[in-house]
Amino acid sequence: MTRKIIIDTDPGQDDAVAILLALASPEVQVLGITAVAGNVPLELTAKNARIVCELAGRPDVKVFAGCDRPLRHALVTAEHVHGKTGLDGPVMPDPMMPLQDGHGVDFIIETLRAEPADTVTLCPLGPLTNIATAFERAPDIVEKVQEIVLMGGAYFQVGNITPAAEFNIYVDPEAADIVFKSGRPITVMSLDVTHKALTTAPRVQAFRDLGTKAGTMVAEWTDFFERFDKEKYGSAGAPLHDPCVIAYLIAPDLFKGRYVNVEIETLSDLTRGMTVADWWGVTNRPRNAMFMGDLDAEGFFELLVQRIGRL
Ligand code: BDR
Ligand code: CA
Questions:
Q1: Are 104 and 10 in contact (CB under 8 A)?
Q2: Which ligand is nearest to the CA of 228?
Q3: Which of 12-16, 52-56, 65-69, 79-83 has the lowest mean pLDDT?
Q4: Is the pLDDT of residue 228 over 90?
Q5: 3-state SS assignment for residue 213
Q6: Burial of 299 (C-beta count, 10 Å sphere; 0-12/13-18/19+)
Q7: Least buried of 31, 83, 90, 284, by fewest C-beta within 10 Å?
Q8: Which residue pairs from 298-304 have beta carbons closer than 8 angstroms and sit at least 24 positions apart in sequence?
Q9: Who contacts 280 (Cβ-Cβ below 8 Å, separation ≥6)?
Q10: Looking at residue 184, what is its pLDDT?
Q11: Structural contact between residues 289 and 194, judged by C-beta atoms closer than 8 angstroms
C-alpha cells in the first residue's frame, strides 16, 4: 500500500538523496515538503528542496518554508559539512518552481486535519522544529500521524556535533523532546545505523555509471561531503544519513533495531541534545521508539542506485 508522507527537511546533500529516493518510489506519495532551518539557514534549505524536486522532474511537488530558528536556542548550522549553500558540489541552477505561499507548519496542520486518523507518515530529516510547532499548535493532528520515521540521535556512536549529541537533535532538543513524547509510533534512524550506510568508492561509481543527470549529481554531492567525514572518521566514505528514512518505508527489512525508551536531554549544557536510549532495558521507563542500529548496507545501496536510476 502506498504511504502518504510529508518530508520535513534541511537540504543538505544527504537530504537531497532522500528526496530523490522518495520521488522515485511508488511505495510513497509525497504530500508535500516542508523546509526547516538546520544545515544552512531556511532561505537556502527552501531553495535547495526545490532544486532537488526539479532535478527529479517534479516541479509539481509542493514545497513550503517552515521555521527559521529552533524553539529556544540560536540556530546552529553545518556549513563545515555541507558547504556554504548546503548543497555544495556540482553547480546547480536556481529553481524555477515557486515556493508555496503560507507557512510550512500551517501546511502540516491543514494536511493532517484533512486526512483520516493514523494515515500520514512524517519523515523529518532535520531539526524537529516544524513538527513540534505543529503538534503544540494543533494537538488534534497528532492522532492523524501513522508513524514518525526520523533521522536523528545516536546511542553507541554518541554524537557528531558535540561529544554527546547528533546534529538534528542538538539543534532543537526542546522540539525533539516534544516529538519523542507525542505518543505516536517513532522509528529512529540513529547515527548507529547511518554510519553503516557508507559511500565507498564503488558505491559512488555505481551512481555515476547510471549515466543520468540524477546519478551524476548524487555522485558529485557525495564526492563533496565525503571529504569531511573521511578526514574525521578515517572511514572509506561518508554516511548517507537521511536516505535511511525513506529506504525504511520501502524496504523495512534492510534495518534492525530495538524498541526502547528514548528521552532527550534538554537541560545540561554538556550533553544537550543527547538521545538517552535505554538500549539495555535498565529502567522501567515506557518504550516509545524503535531505535535502529544496523542495516544491510549492500541492499540499501542497491535500492538507492536502482531507484535513482529511474529518474
Ligand atoms: C544529520 O545532520 C545533517 O547534517 C544531515 O543532513 C543529517 O540529517 C546527521 O547528523
Ligand atoms: Ca538533514
A1: no
A2: 1
A3: 79-83
A4: no
A5: helix
A6: middle
A7: 284
A8: 299/251, 299/254, 300/197, 300/243, 300/244, 300/247, 300/254, 301/197, 301/203, 301/206, 303/21, 303/247, 303/250, 303/251, 303/254, 304/17, 304/21, 304/207, 304/240, 304/243, 304/247
A9: none
A10: 98
A11: no
Q: What is the pLDDT of residues 61-112, one digit of tens each?
A: 999 999 999 999 999 999 999 999 999 999 999 999 999 999 999 999 999 9
124/245 Cα distance (integer angstroms): 8
Q: Is 80 a catalytic residue?
A: no
The residues, any chain, with a CB within 8 Å of residue 286's CB and separated by 6 or more, are 261
Residue count of the chain? 311
For the record, the C-alpha cell of 179 comes out as 516529538
Quote the DSSP letter at residue 242: T
CATH label, 3-308, candidates 3.20.20.70, 3.30.930.10, 3.90.245.10, 3.60.20.10: 3.90.245.10
Mean pLDDT of 239-248: 97
- Answer whether 182's CB lies under 8 Å from 150's CB: no
CA of 14 to the centre of ligand 1 (A): 7
223, HSE (Cβ side, Cα atoms, 13 Å): 12
Indicate if ligand 1 lies below 6 Å from the C-beta of 15: yes
Residue 195, ligand 1, Cβ within 6 A: no
Ligand 1 center from residue 191 Cα (angstroms): 9
Closest-approaching ligand to the CA atom of 19: 2
